[in-house]
Structures are given as structure tokens and as C-alpha cells.
């Protein structure tokens, strides 16, 4: 193996580093000449996830590193927010003043007055926000772009106990189904995997109203009407059930589909419902063999009449504590010969409690009932997908096994929770959850060892006392996404309570905004954004701007970031953060996860001027807060059962710097200093086992859920008062749900498509990227264009209804690009969170309102379960921009503007 740092000549060296221009953390070589990064390249020898390729975003990182938009010193606001007037201050002054203000505000309003918005996920730093939130004591922190994509992506853990991962299939995958994931741009590395598997015979089905690069390669492109995917899946489920194509063995053995559902309460029938002193961990099924009730015991991991898997499971837990695993199958993995739980039927059951006789049906029967009306013809009438295609695609999915299903991005609608329930149904009835070639459960299966705690593991929000957690905004109103679900799920995972935490716990965006506006249920006055351009990602930009302009509403707004952004322009303090080239990193994603191997990435160049890692800011802040109250430093808010690695490692700020913290962890878990770890590039935890990556349910004998099964019937939804199996709900602002508005807004916007080179709101200021992708394309069918009097390459306005506080920013510009493969009536706006670094702050906050689709989103009728808005299913209208509009907004980037964004020289960097 080559060294982590290879000298080419006296002044030039190659450094083994980890690209973090998107989520994947690919290993790359950075060539450094005279202390300056000059090249980023892949290397096939470096292995996954990029297998030697460095995508366009990695190459452009050089321009990001030296962008003139980089922040170099801590800045304190010297004028009004958004005026662009700043005073350079020292880190000490900035942090001391911030700490004093935080302390004063916590005393006055309570810790929950602070929110920590997280958006574009930099998970090598974003976890710091968790620690800062917990240090302050607020439950209102987000991890990632929650309502936009993170929540729906990981929401399925309410069904399986943990979320699944899809990498575009494997050699074993027969069929990959993608719901509107524009992989060619969003995940170019994953797109290569998909195409390689396709070459080997894997079928590719892409469900997307817009045929992009990726969909054009598909065996089946399914152009669904935006926001109606739930209906499509219900239609496909009906075909699969009617034709008997579901994986009966998997469904019966590994899902709760045979469990009986009470006709009176809608909950699952328990032994304690029918037998005095019966167990509430025994779920009742109807046994076809003996024509009577029998049970599955989730605690004993046992079918009635079969062997118990409990002793085996307990043994796995002991092994887990020693970082060991087993490949031995659980005795409870097989269904005993004496039982065959029924999937269909209706049964009268005598309760032992008040209520007498009730009718019960298996959850699978309930599903069959729910989809009964979804004939291919009915499905076509709602979704626009031709009936014969519904049948053909469903048959493919039901026949080609294993199937890998990527829920993608199409879900971004107000019915997202039901969408995830529907995807869950598709995954379970095709028997694909945690099977080889199917949807693999994430690395943290409770009984698979994870020998080395990542910073994420140590930072989940579960350390707050319950009464504080329950103050999370949205906790009681969006119960699956923001609160109550966690209280249930944390019971499922006693070994790793943090599994139930980080991906699920966040406040509801609209509730946060309303709390800031109205002071109810309590006022939000403080915002601390850790490397997050949150203002560009939040719907209803207009309402947030009004709040930020009013210093009696938002008393403190702190932003850390790598570059100046519209969000940072509205802050009181802006603190410079490091880039991925400027920090060392221990990667738990590549060769990490549940594996004992970890990649150690090296810093390639020194931080620009006074840029610091966000951890270092958090540690400083904690110390500064400690001047007012020692408990901020001592971790008073760190609840004792915080997580598996509680105690010493549960302390948030064990060192002053991130490298100091990693040194502590390296010495403890790897037996060597971090410096040595970095030299080795890949390190193994001594003595730790590598667990299997699939079919872990066979080994554990159960899924990490309340029922011990993959929950086809979502017990979380049911307990939270929401439908436990998918029901179709029309998007909140669609031509069908709002015909009154649709008279004036007759088109449907599907926003947030991808264009090459960007990552959410990032990289708009890179000349290479802007030469490639200068402006936001609006893909429309020529028929629609003709109807609305616009032509190819015209600048047009895309406009939403002004209601809900969207005005005056409820219209954005874009450039027409004809796509014959976009259904008529659909407006597909590429990208989201566009802003214009080529413009000054005086020019409407760097053009923050001109191209930002988030400003078009309605938030008042969002998803009841999760709070998600209608990002991809929002009515709109289009019309041509006038000459005056174009003269005013100057949408085309000019050569002068590009030149002004060119990388700084070494001399300029040093200023
Ligand atoms: S930007 Fe490209 S090279 Fe960098 S981590 Fe993402 S996929 Fe890998």
C-alpha cells in the first residue's frame, strides 16, 4: 500500500484524502504543490465507493478551496442584517459574546428557544450541531435536510427498526426500481453501479414524471403524475396480490402481515386481549392448519409450538458487547411445521375484556382490501400511468427476485408518510428487506457489532431528558416525524437506543417558523446554523426573511460556513469553517459502518486563514458557557443512558480540537495515536468480527421492531393515530385537491431535479461548474410551451399561488428547455436552493429569491405525519419574462462575473 502522503518531488506531494463534496466520502488523491492543492483524482486501487473514479464535484473542489467567496475570519455584524456590513473579530471575542447571549436567552426564554437548522448534510461535521444543541439543552436541532429528503429517506425505520440502503443493486439483483432519483447527477458513482449491474442483466425500472439521463436508460420508464406515487404503488400491489406474485414465504415468516387486526380499535390483536393474564408481546394469527388462533411471541422470539430464539438472541447480545458476531441461524428462523398463519380471511374473536366478540382480519387482508379499488384502469385515472404499463411493471417487480427498490426523491409531497408506507409494502411483499440483492438494512442492526463509535454515534440527541425532548416543536402534531414515534422505537432497541434517534428526531419546519412568529407554544428567538445555508432550503422564504429582519423576533443568529451565503448574510456572527481538504477524517462509511475497518483521510492543505472545524467551535463555546454554569462543560444534559458508548465518550467536548478528540478515540479503540492511524489509511479494530451484511434477521431471528417482524402494518402509524397501511391522499395543492386555485395555476411543478456539478445549494460560485451549468433549466413539453406562448431558451416565470405567506417571492425565473419526455402539464425545474454568488449582497441577497424553488412551496397543509411540503407536486403557472424583467435580473452569468469568481492566488488567500 502506498503511503498516505507520497512525495513526488521537493515541493509536490500526493495526499490520501476523503472527498466530501457530497455524502459519499470517496477516497481520492490530492496533489499539493507548494502547499496548494492543484489536482484531485481517483485511483482504482483505492476501492469503494467510487472504485477509483473522482466525479466532477471532486475535481471542482479545487475551485471551491480557493474561491473568493470563502470566509476567512470570524465576522460580527456591523449594520442591519443583510446589509453586508461586517467587522472582523477574533475567535475569542466572537465565541465569548455568543456564549453570553446564549446564556442570557436560555435564562430568559428556556433552552428550547434555540433551533439548530441543518440542511445539506455534511455528516463529517453536521453531528457537531447535535452536541451543541445538547450542550445548550434544546431539542430543536435537525440533522440533514430533514423534511426535504432525509426524513422520507429514513422514515422507513418505523417499519423495520432501521432504514435500508440501496446502492443500485448488486450482482445478485434482478430488478432495480428507482422512484425519481436522478442518479446521473445526484449520485454519479451510484449511477455507474446501476449501469454495470444493468449490463449484467439487471432490469431497471424508473418511476419519474420526467425522463432524465437515467430514466432514458431504463427498461421501463413510468411517467407518473407528480405526487401520485402512492396510488401507483397501490395499483401495483393489487396486481402482485391478485396474481399471487408476492413472496408468500417471506411475508408469512418475516413480516407482520399475518397478524390479526382488531375491527374495533384498529390495533393488532394481542394475547392479553383474549386471555386473562395473557402477554402483550404475543401477537395473534389465525393458523390455517388447526383452524384456530395461535401466537407469535416477540419477546421469546417464538412461534406457538416452535422453538424459542431468545437464548440465541441473548448470546448475540453478549457477543455484541465484545465486538463479536455469529453466523449461526436462529432456531426461530423457520416456521414450525405445525403452523401456517393465514394471510386472508375474517374471524370472530371473543375478548377477555369488555367488548365481547369482535371481528379480526390479518393485516395482509387489510392491505388487499385497501388496494381492491386500485385496478390498473383506476390507477391510470389517478396517476396517468397507462393501465397496461401498471400491470406489466407490477408483474416484473413481482417476478424478478430479488428486487432492489430505491424510494428516491419522488416522494417529496404532502402525502410522503403514506408514500413511505406504500414503498414499505412493495419491499415486504417482494421479500426484499435485508436479503442479498434486495434492500439491505443499514449497518447498525442491533446485534451486529460496530466496534468503533463514530462521532455520530456519540452525538445523537437522545441524551436530553424526556420532558425536554417532548418540547420539540411538532412533537405532538407531527407524531411520526417529530416525536412520539421515537418514544415507541427507543423501546425496540435497548442495545442501541441511538438507532431510534438521530434519523427521526427533529422539529417540524412550519411549527418552528410559527413559534418564531407567534411565540406559541413558546418563542423561538435563537438560531445557530452549523455549516448550513438553511435559509435557501426552507419553504416560505418570505416569512423567514421578515423574522430575521426583526431583531425582537430573532435575537441571535449564528452561522458557521465555508463560504459567504445568503443565510450567512442574515447572521449576527459568521464563523469560517474548514473544507474537506483542510481536515483529517476517520470515515465510518467506507470500509466502516458495521465493519471493523475504517478509512483514515488526511488533511491535504492547511485551513485558509482562521477557518476552524465546527467541533473546535463547539468545544470553545462549551468552555465559554462554562463561565456562567460549569454544567455546560460537564455535560449536565447528557442523560445517563444516552447510548452504548455513554460515560466518558458520551461527554461532548473531551478535547479542544477535533484531532484531539479523534486521538482519544484512536488510542482507546485502535490502540494507537490518531497520527499513526492517519499514516495507515485503513485501520482495523483489533479482534473485532466483520458481520454479514445481509439476512441478519435470519441470524437474529427477528427484526428490531416491537413485533419482531418487518412491520407491513405500521404499528407506529397506528399508535400515533395515522393509517397503518397506505391510503391514497391527493397532494395538498394539486389540480384535483384545489380546483379553485388550479383555474389560475393549471400546471404542476415538480421541483428539485438535478444538474451536473451541484450539491443542493452548494457550488454555484465555481466557474467550472457554472460554465457547464449556467442557469436553471425548466423542462417542459413543447406542447405545454406552445400552449403558454413560450419557446425553447426563453426566460420564463414559474409562479405559485401567493397564499400561505409565499408572496412576494412566489415566482422564480428559469430558462425553458424542451423535453419531449416530460408529460404535458408538468413543469420540471432543475435544481433547488439556487442562489447567485455572482451577484452582490445588495442585489437582493445574492439573488436569493430569483431561482429558489423552495420559495414556491406551500407549508400550511403539509404532511400530517411528518410535516413535509409539496416539493414535487405543487400547482403553478408559467409565463414569459419581459425584456424589463431580464434587464432587471440579468439572468445570464457574464464573463466578468465568472472571472470575479476565479480562484484566489496564494497572495490573495493570505490577505
Ligand atoms: S462528490 Fe463525487 S468523488 Fe466526491 S464524494 Fe461525492 S461521489 Fe465521491
UniProtKB/TrEMBL annotation:
Show the stretches that span the lipid bilayer. Answer: none
Please indicate if the UniProt record lists Chloroplast as a keyword.
Answer: no
- The residue ranges of the 4Fe-4S Mo/W bis-MGD-type domain are 12-69
* Superkingdom, natural source: Bacteria
Give the UniProt keywords, A-Z: Iron, Iron-sulfur, Metal-binding
Q: Name one GO molecular function term.
A: iron-sulfur cluster binding
Stored InterPro entries: Asp_de-COase-like_dom_sf (IPR009010), MoPterin_dinucl-bd_dom (IPR006657), Mopterin_OxRdtase (IPR006656), Mopterin_OxRdtase_4Fe-4S_dom (IPR006963), Prok_Mopterin_Oxidored (IPR050612)
Q: Which family does it belong to?
A: Belongs to the prokaryotic molybdopterin-containing oxidoreductase family.
PANTHER family in the record: TRIMETHYLAMINE-N-OXIDE REDUCTASE (PTHR43742)
What's the name of the protein? Answer: Molybdopterin-dependent oxidoreductase
Q: Which organism is it from?
A: Gordonibacter urolithinfaciens
Amino acid at each position: 500500500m502506498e503511503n498516505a502522503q507520497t512525495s513526488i518531488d521537493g515541493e509536490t506531494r500526493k495526499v490520501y484524502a476523503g472527498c466530501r463534496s457530497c455524502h459519499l466520502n470517496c477516497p481520492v488523491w490530492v496533489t499539493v504543490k507548494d502547499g496548494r492543492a492543484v489536482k484531485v483524482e481517483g485511483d482504482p486501487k483505492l476501492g469503494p465507493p467510487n472504485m477509483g473514479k473522482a466525479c466532477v464535484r471532486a475535481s471542482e473542489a479545487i475551485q471551491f478551496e480557493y474561491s473568493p467567496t470563502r470566509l476567512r475570519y470570524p465576522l460580527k455584524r456591523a449594520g442591519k442584517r443583510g446589509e453586508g456590513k461586517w467587522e472582523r473579530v477574533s475567535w475569542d471575542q466572537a465565541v465569548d459574546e455568543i456564549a453570553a447571549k446564549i446564556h442570557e436567552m436560555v435564562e430568559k426564554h428556556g433552552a428550547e428557544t434555540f433551533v439548530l437548522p441543518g440542511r445539506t448534510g455534511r455528516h463529517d461535521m453536521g453531528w457537531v450541531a447535535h452536541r451543541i444543541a445538547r450542550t445548550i439543552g434544546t431539542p430543536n436541532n435537525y440533522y440533514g435536510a430533514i423534511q426535504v429528503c432525509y426524513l422520507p429517506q429514513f422514515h422507513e425505520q418505523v417499519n423495520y427498526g432501521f432504514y435500508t440502503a440501496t446502492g443500485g443493486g448488486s450482482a445478485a439483483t434482478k430488478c432495480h426500481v428507482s422512484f425519481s432519483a436522478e442518479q446521473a447527477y445526484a449520485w454519479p458513482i451510484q449511477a455507474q453501479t446501476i449501469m454495470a449491474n444493468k449490463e449484467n442483466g439487471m432490469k431497471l425500472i424508473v418511476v419519474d414524471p420526467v425522463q432524465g439521463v437515467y430514466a432514458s436508460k431504463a427498461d421501463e420508464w413510468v411517467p407518473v403524475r407528480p405526487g401520485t406515487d402512492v396510488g401507483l404503488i397501490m395499483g401495483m400491489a393489487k396486481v402482485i396480490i391478485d396474481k399471487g406474485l408476492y413472496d408468500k414465504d417471506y411475508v408469512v415468516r418475516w413480516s407482520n402481515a399475518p397478524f390479526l387486526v382488531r375491527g374495533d380499535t384498529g390495533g393488532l390483536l394481542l394475547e392479553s386481549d383474549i386471555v386473562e393474564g395473557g402477554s402483550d408481546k404475543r401477537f395473534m394469527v389465525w393458523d390455517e392448519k388447526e383452524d384456530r388462533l395461535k401466537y407469535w411471541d416477540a419477546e421469546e422470539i417464538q412461534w406457538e409450538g416452535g422453538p424459542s430464539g431468545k437464548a440465541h438472541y441473548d448470546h448475540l447480545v453478549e457477543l455484541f458487547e465484545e465486538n463479536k458476531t455469529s453466523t449461526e441461524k436462529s432456531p426461530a428462523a423457520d416456521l414450525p411445521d405445525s403452523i401456517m398463519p393465514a394471510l386472508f380471511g375474517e374471524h370472530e374473536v371473543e375478548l377477555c375484556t369488555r367488548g365481547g366478540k369482535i371481528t379480526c382480519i390479518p393485516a395482509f387482508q387489510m392491505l388487499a382490501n385497501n388496494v381492491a379499488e386500485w385496478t390498473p384502469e383506476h390507477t391510470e385515472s389517478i396517476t396517468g400511468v397507462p393501465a397496461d404499463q401498471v400491470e406489466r411493471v407490477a408483474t416484473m417487480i413481482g417476478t424478478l427476485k430479488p428486487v432492489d427498490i430505491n424510494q428516491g426523491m419522488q416522494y417529496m409531497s404532502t402525502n410522503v408518510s403514506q408514500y413511505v408506507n406504500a414503498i414499505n409494502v412493495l419491499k415486504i411483499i417482494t421479500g426484499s428487506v435485508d436479503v442479498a440483492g434486495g434492500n439491505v438494512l443499514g449497518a447498525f442492526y442491533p446485534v451486529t457489532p460496530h466496534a468503533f463509535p463514530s462521532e455520530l454515534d456519540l452525538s445523537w440527541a437522545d441524551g436530553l431528558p424526556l420532558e425536554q425532548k417532548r418540547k420539540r416543536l411538532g412533537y405532538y402534531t407531527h407524531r411520526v416525524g417529530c416525536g412520539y414515534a421515537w418514544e415507541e422505537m427507543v423501546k425496540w432497541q435497548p442495545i442501541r437506543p441511538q438507532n431510534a434517534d438521530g434519523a427521526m428526531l427533529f422539529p417540524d419546519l412550519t411549527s418552528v417558523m410559527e413559534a418564531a412568529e407567534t411565540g406559541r407554544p413558546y418563542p423561538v428567538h435563537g438560531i445557530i446554523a452549523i455549516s448550513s445555508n438553511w435559509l435557501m432550503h426552507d419553504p416560505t422564504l418570505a416569512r423567514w426573511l421578515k423574522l430575521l429582519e426583526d431583531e425582537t423576533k430573532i435575537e441571535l443568529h449564528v452561522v458557521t460556513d465555508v463560504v459567504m451565503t445568503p443565510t450567512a448574510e442574515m447572521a449576527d456572527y459568521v464563523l469560517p469553517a474548514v473544507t474537506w481538504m483542510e481536515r483529517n477524517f476517520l470515515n465510518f462509511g467506507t470500509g466502516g459502518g458495521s465493519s471493523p475497518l475504517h478509512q483514515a483521510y488526511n488533511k491535504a492543505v492547511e485551513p485558509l486563514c482562521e477557518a476552524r472545524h465546527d467541533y473546535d467551535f463547539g468545544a470553545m463555546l462549551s468552555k465559554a458557557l462554562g463561565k456562567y454554569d460549569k454544567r455546560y462543560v460537564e455535560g449536565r444534559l447528557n442523560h445517563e443512558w444516552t447510548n452504548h458508548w455513554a460515560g466518558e465518550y458520551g461527554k461532548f467536548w473531551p478535547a479542544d480540537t477535533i484531532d484531539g478528540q479523534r486521538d482519544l478515540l484512536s488510542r482507546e479503540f485502535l490502540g494507537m495515536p490518531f497520527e499513526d492511524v492517519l499514516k495507515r489509511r485503513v485501520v482495523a479494530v483489533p479482534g473485532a468480527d466483520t458481520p454479514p451484511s445481509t439476512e441478519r434477521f435470519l441470524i437474529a431471528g427477528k427484526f428490531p421492531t416491537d413485533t419482531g417482524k418487518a412491520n407491513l402494518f405500521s404499528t407506529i402509524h397506528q399508535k400515533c393515530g395515522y393509517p397503518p397501511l397506505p391510503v391514497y391522499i391527493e397532494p395538498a395543492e394539486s389540480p384535483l385537491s384545489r380546483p379553485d386555485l388550479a383555474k389560475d395555476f393549471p400546471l404542476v411543478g415538480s421541483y428539485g431535479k438535478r444538474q451536473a456539478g451541484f450539491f443542493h445549494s452548494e457550488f454555484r460560485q465555481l466557474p467550472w461548474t457554472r460554465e457547464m451549468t449556467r442557469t436553471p433549466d425548466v423542462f417542459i413539453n413543447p406542447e405545454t410551451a406552445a400552449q403558454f406562448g413560450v419557446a425553447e431558451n426563453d426566460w420564463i416565470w414559474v409562479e405559485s399561488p401567493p397564499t400561505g405567506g409565499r408572496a412576494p417571492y412566489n415566482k422564480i425565473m428559469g430558462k425553458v428547455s424542451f423535453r419531449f419526455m416530460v408529460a404535458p402539464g408538468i413543469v420540471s425545474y432543475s435544481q433547488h436552493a439556487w442562489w447567485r454568488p455572482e451577484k452582490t449582497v445588495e442585489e437582493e441577497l445574492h439573488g436569493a429569491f430569483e431561482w429558489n424553488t423552495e420559495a414556491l412551496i406551500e407549508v400550511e397543509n403539509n404532511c400530517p405525519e411528518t410535516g413535509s411540503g409539496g416539493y414535487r407536486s405543487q400547482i403553478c403557472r408559467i409565463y414569459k419574462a419581459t425584456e424589463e424583467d431580464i434587464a432587471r435580473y440579468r439572468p445570464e452569468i457574464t464573463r466578468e462575473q465568472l472571472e470575479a469568481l476565479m480562484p484566489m492566488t496564494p497572495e490573495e488567500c493570505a490577505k
